[in-house]
Amino acid sequence: MGILEVKDVNKHFGGLHALRDVNLSIREGSIHAIIGPNGAGKSTLLNVLVGKLVPDTGSVMFDGQSVLGRKPHEINQMGISRVFQTPEIFGDLTVMENVLIPCFARRDGAFRLHAFETVETEAELIEQAERALVDVNMADKRHHHAASLSRGDKRRLEMAMCLVQKPRLLLLDEPTAGMARANTNRTIDLLRDIHARRDITMVIIEHDMHVVFSLAQRITVLAQGTPLVEDTPENIKGHPKVQEAYLGEAH
Amino acid sequence: MLGLNKRDTRFLLIVIALTMLTPFILQPFPEGSALAQFNAGYPDLMQRIAIFGIFAIGFNILFGLTGYLSFGHAAFLGVGSYAVVWMYKLLDYNVLPGLALAIVTSGLFALAIGYLSLRRSGIYFSILTLAFAQMSFNLAYSVLTPITNGETGLQVYTSDPQILLGENEPNIPHLFGLVMSDSYKLNLGGWVFTFNIGYYFTAVIAILVFYLSLRIFRSPFGLMLRAVKSNQTRLNYTGVNPRPYTLAAFVISGMYAGLAGGLLAAMDPLAGAERMQWTESGAVVIMTILGGAGTLMGPVLGAGFIKYLEKIFSKINENVLDGWFSFLPDPLREVVVWIFSRFTGEGWALTLGLMFMLVVIFLPGGLMEGGERIRNLIRRRKNGSGDDASPGRTPAE
């Protein structure tokens, strides 16, 4: 049993069969990549995992509990965090405040009327946030407004915001999209480092084969809404079906 | 002090000093001088500035922090007024029970309206709140006449029970015998300063609720509200449910409005349905934006500014203008007076409209941003260097 079990999931959008009998098992502690050509259903699958979409049929179990029908904040509280393709951060707030919010969310849950406490005096959480910023190399920018950051910094900030929650499963939606090669490599190192130091399961949706083969321990190839094969990177590279469906046209 | 850091404590002390010295500050010109008509230090106006300041501080907790623009906050103002007058009718003229009831009822009312309206955001939320407020206005105006006394407005009659009314108790609003409309006049040289009990009662409450809003701004709760405004998607995926946060902000700001409405009735024992009109809701929006939404002082400043314009500018009629421009030759004077009179007297709203446009276009952060810019300009002049040394922009207070 994996930490995340997707069974017989189907999803239709009007006449489009976006997900077709998807079965997926993610082993705890692994880095699992989901690849596939455009329109293969990668993003739809991810949206199902975080509660944004409810599939027509099938089940999604996280650590033995169904995630279906739960709201995104409930799924997050179960221990699933998500990094978006375009970073979703609190642009009007400072970098420090951005990281403090998930700290509060982790300690206080989905809602707490803490109107008579003071943010400044929460030394423990501030230290936590500080450490998370050091982890992604952004401590010197803690007083900057998040909206003024560069795209790469926004991504690292978002990563820090997810990691500070100590999630059990981190979903990454094209974490290197639009990045220069040097930045891509830095992100790869960062993710590898995080995975080595903490016990986080990662699911990566990615277009860039360089990223996928540098990080993933297992790869699922999705095509036309259905998983084609699932295997180790070495075996995927030479797989004829994959070559045909994906790598053949991409490389 | 009081859970505030040094800077905020100093800020609060300044606010307290300004509020307590308002009778002096708003009375800068000696009595009988040509400029005396610009004096604003009389009880009715000072009370109104403080009361609408409270209204705007509360509105700012919702609009300034979460970005949810309610167009129906006047409904809570009205509820507060009715609650206070009802307590006059049933108990006696002591304002405290009424104000407590005003806060509770407006809070419950806000809970109901907020629960429904907050299912939508953006323009749909605004329209929903507007619709609920107009419904409340119409109910108060006609259907609920037994409770609100319809278009006449709710007032106290001698036939009312007033079960707590003592023998020597004042027959007008008071706080344990301190009559709200009582004033002490101080003659100093040519100046006359008025110290009104009603104003000081309102001012003390205003300071308390300002302190409360300061605490909310600095609290984790306030941080979450700002996060709601900034990015709800991220907040959801951070494990936070935005709905109860926005609802709590809505209820708190509704209670502020109810308190303000109650205070209006504490100064003048009347409550009418027109207090629930959408124009009142619009007024608080304008006050908040004019002063600076999301800043602590801005809404109070905006409230003071508008109430001052409303009372003082509206007094400048054609006769006054004639006097000012008497040095001009006749035909020219008539033209000048005609032009100016469009913007003063009954035309004061035109001035307000123009000011509002200028502020929104050139100072999106309101008067507070204007002040900030002037301060930066002076600081730069002093330092003699062109660039600002502080890294990152700190939000205006």
Instruction: For the record, give the distance between the C-alpha atoms at the N and C termini of chain B, rounded to a whole number.
Output: 18 Å
Beta strands of chain B, count: 4
Most extensive chain contact?
A: A-B, 43 and 33 residues
Strand order of the biggest β-sheet of chain A: 6-7-8-3-9-10
CATH classification class of chain B: Mainly Alpha
Beta content of chain A = 15-25%
Question: Which structural class is indicated by helix and strand composition of chain A?
Answer: alpha/beta
Q: Strand share of the residues of chain B?
A: under 5%
Order of helices and strands of chain A: EEEHEEHEHHHEHEHEEHH
Helix content range of chain B: 55-70%
Major beta sheet, strand line-up of chain B: 1-2
Q: What is the CATH topology assignment of chain B?
A: ABC transporter involved in vitamin B12 uptake, BtuC
Low-confidence stretches of chain A: none
Overall 3D shape of chain A:
globular
Main sheet: strands, sense, barrel of chain A: 6 strands, mixed
Mean pLDDT of chain A: 90
Tell me the distance between the termini of chain A.
Answer: 35 Å
What's the gyration radius of chain A in Å?
19 Å
- Reading the helices and strands of chain B in chain order gives HHHHHHHEEEEHHHHHHHHHH
Beta strand count of chain A: 10
Report on this structure.
The complex is a heterodimer of chains A (251) and B (397). With 251 residues, chain A is α/β, with parallel strands linked by helices. Chain A has helices at 42-49, 72-78, 95-108, 123-135, 151-163, 181-197, 209-215, 233-238, 240-250; strands at 4-13, 16-26, 31-35, 57-62, 65-66, 80-83, 169-173, 201-205, 218-223, 226-231. In chain A, the strands form two sheets. A six-stranded mixed beta sheet of chain A has the order 6-7-8-3-9-10, sandwiched between helices. In chain A, strands 2-1-4-5 form a four-stranded antiparallel beta sheet, covered by helices on one side. In chain A, a hairpin with a 2-residue loop joins strand 9 (218-223) and strand 10 (226-231). In chain A, helix 3 (95-108) packs across helix 4 and helix 4 packs across helix 5. Chain A is globular and about 55 Å long. The mean pLDDT of chain A is 90. With 397 residues, chain B is mainly alpha-helical. Chain B has one domain (6-314): Orthogonal Bundle (ABC transporter involved in vitamin B12 uptake, BtuC), CATH 1.10.3470. Chain B is built from 17 helices and four strands. Chain B has helices spanning 6-20, 22-25, 43-66, 74-90, 95-117, 122-143, 145-148, 197-218, 220-230, 232-236, 242-267, 278-291, 298-312, 318-324, 330-343, 348-362, 366-383, and strands at 174-175, 178-179, 183-188, 191-196. Chain B has a two-stranded antiparallel ribbon with strand order 1-2. Chain B has a two-stranded antiparallel sheet with strand order 3-4. In chain B, a hairpin with a 2-residue loop joins strand 1 (174-175) and strand 2 (178-179). In chain B, helix 4 crosses helix 11. The radius of gyration of chain B is 23 Å and the shape is globular. Chain B starts with 5 loop residues before the first helix and ends in a 14-residue tail after the last helix. The model of chain B is unreliable at 386-397 (pLDDT under 50). The chains are: A alpha/beta (251), B mainly alpha (397). Chain A binds chain B through residues 50, 71-73, 76-77, 81-82, 84, 88-94, 97, 100-102, 104-106, 108-120, 122, 143-145, 148, 161, 165, and chain B through 3-5, 215-216, 218-224, 226-227, 229-231, 233-241, 244-245, 248, 252, 391-393.
